[in-house]
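Lab notebook, bench 4. Still working through the backlog of constructs that have no structural model yet. Next entry is a single chain of 81 residues. Request: give me the structure tokens for it.
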Amino acid sequence: MGIIVALVIGAIAGWLAGLIVRGAGFGLIGNIVVGIIGALVASWLLPQLGVSLGGSAIRDIVNATIGAIVVLVILSLVRRA
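Model written out:
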């Protein structure tokens, strides 16, 4: 069940990040991948910044979305170069 939950959270986070960062969506599979990578980035980045959002599924989605936004911004900058 854990892998399915991770995929669902990744899909939601990638979709939300795609909406926030206009023109940077990658479709369903791409959004899942970006969301999962974003969750990994956020799990490292947010504690480094001293940010703690509590513990729940909503927190996981918010963390993954923040990380996915960071990943999408970096990818859009690389794509333009």
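Notes after review: Residues 34 and 74 are 11 Å apart (CA to CA). The helical segments are 2-20, 27-49, 57-80. Flag for follow-up if needed.
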